[in-house]
Amino acid sequence: MDNTIISVKNLSKLYGSEQQKAIRLKKKGIDKDEIYKRTGVTIALWDVSLEIKQGEIFVIIGLSGSGKSTLVRCFNRLNKPTQGSVYFQGEKIDDFDKKRLREYRRDKIAMVFQHFGLMSHRSVLGNTEYGLEVKGLSKEKRGKAAKEMLAMVGLEGHENEPIHNLSGGMKQRVGLARALASNPDLLLMDEPFSALDPLVRKDMQFELLTIQKKLKKTIIFITHDINEAFLLGDRVAIMKDGEVIQTATPQEMSENPYTDYVKQFIDSADKTHVLDVGSVMITPNSIVRLGDTLNFAIRTMKNNGVSSAYVVDKKMKLQGVLTIDNAVKANKSGQTISDVLIKEINTTSADTLLADIIEIASTTPFPIAVVDENFTLKGIVSKAHVLSSMSS
Ligand SMILES: Nc1ncnc2c1ncn2[C@@H]1O[C@H](COP(=O)(O)OP(=O)(O)O)[C@@H](O)[C@H]1O
Ligand SMILES: [Mg+2]
Questions:
Q1: 234 and 283 together in one domain
Q2: 59-73, 334-348, 374-388: which range is least confident on average?
Q3: Whose CA is nearest to atom 24 of ligand 1?
Q4: Ligand nearest to the CA of 44
Q5: Is the alpha carbon torsion for 42, 47, 51, 57 positive or negative?
Q6: Across 34-61, average pLDDT
Q7: Contact between 372 and 281 (Cβ < 8 Å)
Q8: pLDDT value of residue 129
Q9: How large is the average pLDDT for residues 169-185?
Q10: How many domains does the chain have?
Q11: Which atom of ligand 1 is nearest to the CA of 191?
C-alpha cells in the first residue's frame, strides 16, 4: 500500500521578474546570491522532491532564508509554485478549483504558526472552536470537540480565559488545540516553538510527541534547530538555498551525511538524541553462568578487573548481577550464585536512544544490561560509554 500523503515533484519557486534568465543561470550552476545580484530574482525553492508518509513527523530544517516557509506554503497553496507540483493523496493540488481548495484547507490540513495567530478578542475556547464554527458545526458539538482538545494540550479549566492572559507556551497550546480540533489529516507547523523560552520549548516538544502517539497525525514540522529536528523527526529534510540536500532519518543522517554542510549542521547537535544504545554498547567481558561455581565466578571477575558480572542461564537469558564482594562472602559460607544474585537490575533495549537512559546510567551502580525481547543478554552500556558518545 502506498502510504504517501504529500508528494512534491521538482518544485521550484522564484520571486522576481527575470525568471527565465535566473533559471538559465541556475542550470549553469550559479548560486542563489549571485543570481539575485545579476537578475534581482530570488530562488526561494529549487527542484525540491519529497514524499511525506502518513503518520510521520517530517521535519524540514534549514537556516533562515533557506526556503522552509516557502515550501510549506506550497502545501496549502498559499504559494503558487513556479515549476513542479504538489500532490495530496495522489491528487495534484494545483488542479483544485476554488471550492475543492477551500474544502482541502478547511478539512484536510491545519497550520500552527510561530506567532500563534490567535484572535485576541476571543477566549481560549472561542479560538479553539473557530475552525469548527467555519465548518458549520453546532455550538454544542464544536464546544465539546474544542474542550477535548484543550484537555489534551493541558489547558483544562482555562477555556474561558482571554487570550492576552496567557503565557507564550499556553498560547501555543491553544494554537495546537485549534489546529487539532478540526481533525485534519495533516498538520503544518512553521517554527511553532521558536519564540518560546528553552524550558517551555522542551515541554511543548514533549507534549507534541505525546499527542502524536495518541492521534497519529501526519505532521510537517519546520525548525532551524537541529536538536529539535532530531528529537521530533521520524525523518528530516535539510535545506540550503532553496534546495533539499538530504532527506533521511536522524540516525541515517548522522551516520552518513551527504555533504560537509549537513555534517556541520549535525556536529552542532546533541548526539544523545541520535545514537541508540546498540551503537555504543559493548560485549561484557565477564559473563557468569548460573551453574558456575563461585570460585570460577570470582576468578573471572578478577581476571577481567571488574567488580561485578552479569549472570545468564544456558540460553544466555539474563538472571541478574553478581558482585565480587557478594561472591567472596557467599563462597566462605558455602552458598551458591543463586543465593546472592541481585535480580533487581536496570535493563534496556538496543534501539533505545541514549538520551533516554542518561538518567539511569548516571545513578546505576552497574553498567546497564542490554537485552532483547526474550531477555537474552546482548551487551552492556556504562555511564562512561554514554558520556563519551555525547562529547565525541
Ligand atoms: N514574497 C516574497 N518575495 C520575495 N522574496 C521572498 C518572498 N518570500 C520569501 N522570499 C525569499 O525566499 C527565500 C526563502 O524564504 P523563506 O521560505 O521565508 O525562508 P525560511 O522560511 O527558510 O526562513 C529568502 O531568500 C526570502 O528572502
Ligand atoms: Mg520561515
A1: no
A2: 374-388
A3: 65
A4: 1
A5: negative
A6: 97
A7: no
A8: 94
A9: 94
A10: 2
A11: 21
